[in-house]
């Protein structure tokens, strides 16, 4: 079957080597990879199949990982991964959503088959896709194995992107720009909020004239009117008022790599004090961008931003940035570094962050953001739409 690899084989081999080196350092013999973005990162696997049990098994003793999933998804594994057929395995269809049979017990048999019955096994205990039931079934089926938490083992390796990954994220940024540009042109009083959301989705998927997009990890945050002070609000089917604030965060997705972008759109006359709040947000963002340089820490960047807020007597408790990359639902952000005070992660070229220094007061909110890749000299923007208020 013809392979549909997004990256060169050497890219996947480099990633696998880095993961195995970290496994060896921690004394882990076998790693059970349950998080879909990590499965994609190591093998290229891509299909909307992660709602049923699915694993990539990495063994220090085997050249290739083993993908294990539902029988009907074997086709996607054959198409989208570099794995040999012998390393694409399935469990019986009777185990899908069954109260009688466990897919995890079937996966445990494969672990035994490759010599893992008494191994030190790493699992992603803090991930979205490693359930309590999975852990119960694995530990019961492999009673002589030692299970250890390896939740962010791959996450910290993924934090620094390769040049090939950054190139894909630049395309995702162009999709985000196209979607935001379309919204700023379409938004007007009288239009239903849900129709504005539909415009976003249409452009996210259609992408640009040169390349299309894919489904994002999460819906756009479309915070309108009184919900503009709620950072993660949902849209309604109500018409947009004649004078209101729209805080919108969306993303561009290309080959599962996501780049986020937020802007504030003002319909009619801005509320009192709103323009001043926006100026503070923009000043803080520019200072934070200037502070991003290799060798500095996430905390250094947050400190620079907060120095701006202090001058205006404003306090912000939440973080102002997070890393992004390959992602699947339910979330785009990588669960490693955060741009906030106290995070001593050292910035390196190739790291990608969504700088999201939104400001919310009791009556108004401003969300003007920038996704960037850390470079040798500072940052390179991944989106190019102007960092400003959009007035309609």
TrEMBL record:
Transmembrane segments: none annotated. InterPro entries: Creatin/AminoP/Spt16_N, Creatinase/aminopeptidase-like, Creatinase_N, Pept_M24, Peptidase_M24B. Residues 15-160 form the Creatinase N-terminal domain. CDD domains: APP_MetAP (cd01066). Gene3D superfamilies: Creatinase/methionine aminopeptidase superfamily (3.90.230.10), Creatinase/prolidase N-terminal domain (3.40.350.10). Residues 169-376 form the Peptidase M24 domain. PANTHER family: AMINOPEPTIDASE, XAA-PRO AMINOPEPTIDASE P-RELATED. This is M24 family metallopeptidase. The lineage of its organism: Bacteria, Pseudomonadati, Pseudomonadota, Alphaproteobacteria, Hyphomicrobiales.
């Amino acid at each position: 079957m013809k392979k549909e690899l997004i990256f060169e084989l050497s890219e996947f081999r480099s990633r696998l080597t880095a993961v195995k080196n970290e496994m060896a350092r921690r004394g882990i013999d076998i790693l059970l990879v349950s998080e879909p973005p990590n499965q994609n990162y190591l093998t290229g696997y891509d299909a909307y199949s992660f709602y049923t049990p699915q694993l990539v098994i990495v063994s220090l003793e085997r050249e290739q990982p083993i993908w294990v999933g539902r029988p009907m998804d074997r086709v996607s594994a054959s198409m989208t991964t570099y794995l040999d057929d012998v390393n694409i395995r399935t469990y019986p269809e009777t185990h899908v959503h069954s109260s009688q049979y466990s897919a995890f017990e079937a996966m445990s048999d494969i672990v035994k088959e490759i010599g893992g019955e008494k191994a030190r096994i790493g699992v992603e205990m803090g991930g979205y896709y490693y359930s309590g039931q999975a852990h119960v079934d694995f530990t019961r089926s492999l009673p002589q194995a030692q299970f250890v938490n390896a939740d962010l083992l791959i996450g910290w390796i993924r934090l620094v992107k390769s040049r090939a990954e950054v190139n894909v994220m630049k395309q995702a940024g162009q999709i985000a720009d196209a979607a935001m540009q379309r919204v700023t042109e379409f938004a007007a009083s009288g239009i239903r909020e849900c129709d504005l959301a539909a415009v976003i989705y249409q452009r996210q998927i259609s992408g640009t004239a040169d390349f299309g997009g894919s489904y994002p990890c999460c819906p756009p945050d479309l915070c309108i009117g009184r919900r503009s002070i709620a950072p993660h609000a949902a849209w309604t089917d109500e018409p947009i008022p004649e004078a209101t604030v729209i805080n919108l965060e969306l993303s561009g997705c290309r080959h599962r790599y996501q780049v986020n972008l937020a802007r504030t759109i003002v319909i009619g006359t801005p509320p009192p004090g709103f323009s001043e709040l926006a100026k503070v947000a923009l000043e803080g963002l520019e200072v934070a961008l200037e502070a991003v340089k290799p060798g500095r820490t996430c905390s250094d960047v947050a400190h620079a931003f907060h120095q701006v807020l202090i001058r205006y007597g404003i306090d912000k408790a939440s973080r102002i940035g997070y890393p992004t990359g390959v992602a699947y639902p339910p979330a785009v952000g990588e669960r490693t570094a955060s741009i906030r005070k106290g995070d001593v992660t050292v910035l390196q070229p190739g790291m990608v962050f969504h700088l999201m220094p939104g400001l919310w007061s009791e009556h108004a909110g401003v969300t003007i953001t920038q996704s960037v890749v850390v470079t040798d000299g500072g940052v390179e923007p991944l989106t190019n739409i102007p960092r400003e208020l959009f007035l309609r």
